[in-house]
């Protein structure tokens, strides 16, 4: 099966001048895509102690967001086509704000229900943000805005991991209050986007240039982009969920494990900032994606074989996953031929991708409960990282996927 290709020129695409306000609004959305999720891993020991959740049940708690991403993503394109990107994004931010509060209420039902709802809201932002950048950011500046978007997302995610345990100790509500802190960022994003509802519909052109772009299910290139997205997400969210527990099992304190997770994400953040500069103008990224994936595998191997070098392992993991994240997000717009096609490809990549990723936290929790060790889980992560190298090599080819005409 061959992937259809199209020209890189998009004559129908027109974008207004880029304003500082729009960049800030985009970055505030990016900051919300992980802020409510990454702190959960460092708080898991406290949550388990307070609620009696097993490692398997905690794995379900970490898997729910990924399942919701997978379930919600395919519908975002149609909803955006019907209601407009800005309206849908504002609604998602309002739901995210309310659900973040709901999750922190003193009830296991609220903990899981709030996680389900906020994850659906985040899924909408995940799919819409590449489209917003493709639609509103002039081509020469898109590379820079993509780098800033990944930086904002990674920075807030790292901060959330680092401060969650200290907040739980300092605030009256303990871990529940620590889960709720990200409502501040959600409110800030909502305030930034609400005034844009009064502006002329900036996404009207995307909706009127033709029919809703078809999801490219028949394109092998699109499947490779999707699997690469899924495997890098699986690696990242598994590390976020279980790395503190793995380190604690090796003798590290809970607080130190949280800050090590923070360090891992900072390394990924720096890598994500640097990669777009190093690869500027390079459309063929096969070897970059494959090499980054192999570095991830090396990090997990060191964590398994030489646990005393945990800091070295986390450095390699940060380098590899930081690069893979930027590439996975970039492929969703770089491999599409226009804004509508970007939404279609992003919806497919994130639906399939997060379905793959959802297996990770739950499977590793079950493996640990079954074997009483993290060795099997780390071996599995090494194998999956090598598989990611293969899919990254395919997704990195300089070819464009047509979302309208499946092959």
What are the main properties of this structure?
MFS; disordered C terminus; disordered N terminus; Growth Hormone, Chain: A; mainly alpha; 407 residues
Describe the overall structure:
The protein has 407 residues and is mainly α. It has 16 helices and no strands. Helix 1 packs antiparallel against helix 8 (183-193), helix 2 runs antiparallel to helix 3 and helix 4 runs antiparallel to helix 5. The model is unreliable at 1-15, 204-210 and 403-407 (pLDDT under 50). Keywords: Membrane, Transmembrane, Transmembrane helix. It comes from Amycolatopsis thailandensis. Its main location: membrane.
Topology:
Layout: H1 20-31, H2 35-51, H3 55-83, H4 85-103, H5 108-136, H6 139-170, H7 175-180, H8 183-193, H9 204-208, H10 220-249, H11 254-278, H12 286-305, H13 310-334, H14 339-357, H15 359-371, H16 375-395
